[in-house]
Amino acid sequence: MKKVVCHVRDIEPGEIKETKLEKKSIIVCRTLDGEFYAFLNRCIHQGAPLSKGMLCGTSAETDRLGDYQYVKEGEVLRCPWHGREFDVKNKGCMLAHSKFKLKNYKVEVENEEVVIYK
Predict the structure, then answer these.
(1) Burial (Cβ within 10 Å: 0-12, 13-18, ≥19) of residue 29
(2) CB 76 within 8 A of CB 57
(3) How confident is the model at residue 62 (pLDDT cuts 50, 70, 90)?
(4) What pLDDT is recorded for position 68?
(5) For the whole model, what pTM was predicted?
(6) Which of 21, 32, 47, 117 has the most CB atoms less than 10 A away?
(7) Is 12 in a helix, a strand, or coil?
(8) What is the pLDDT of residues 39-54, one digit of tens each?
(9) Alpha-carbon distance 11 to 90, whole Å?
(10) What does the DSSP assignment read for 45-100?
């Protein structure tokens, strides 16, 4: 099954769009480099609607004790309830525990339309 979600220009880089696939709420994320990713609109922790979250980056340690750098800008989906962070470019894996991940969906761009597949 496939569904046309929108036109490419309807989701700007760094934005999230909520849609339905059959009866499930799905989100489509567009990273800053223009790539599209789709996930079930439900945090695996306590079911928060990820459509209310944000695409952002995260901090990472450096070689210098106490120093951090901001990384993965526009590639991290942050849960609105408890701040869980998921790497959209890595199949929705949780940053803190990569063995946990969001349910993801295949996304293609066909004739300038964003299409998700079940």
Answers:
(1) buried
(2) yes
(3) confident
(4) 86
(5) 0.92
(6) 21
(7) coil
(8) 999 999 999 999 999 9
(9) 20
(10) TT---GGGSEEEEEEEE-SSTT-EEEEEEEEEEE-TTT--EEEGGGTTEESS-TT-
Tokens of 48: 């928060």
Interval 7-32: pLDDT, tens: 999 999 999 999 999 999 999 999 99
Q: How far apart are CA 45 and CA 31, in angstroms?
A: 23
Residue type, 44: I
Instruction: Identify the residue whose tokens are 């969001």.
Output: 102
- CA 58 to mean position of chain CA atoms: 14
Q: What does residue 107 show for φ and ψ, rounded to 5 degrees?
A: -125, 135
What's the pLDDT at 77?
98
In the block, tokens 């969906």 appear at 105
The label of the residue with tokens 């569904």 reads 3
In the block, residue with structure tokens 């929108």: 6
Contact 48, 41 (CB under 8 A): no
